[in-house]
Amino acid sequence: MISEWIIVAFLSIGITFNALGVIGLLRFPDLYTRMHATTKATTFGSVFTSLAVIVYAISLYLNTIDPQFIVLGIHSLVAAMALAFTNAVGSHAIARAAHRSGILPAPAVIDRLKEAGQ
Amino acid sequence: MHTPRPARGDPVIAFFLTFFLSLFVYLILTAGSGNVGFWSVSELTAGVALSLMTAAIARKFLCRAGNYRMANPLRFLLIPVYVIGPFFLEVIKANLDVAYRVITMRIRPGIIRVSSDLKSDLGIFMLANSITLTPGTITVDIDEKTHDLYIHNINVGAGDEDKPVIPDYELFSISDLPKWIRRIAE
Question: Domain residues of chain A, as ranges?
Answer without folding.
Answer: 2-116
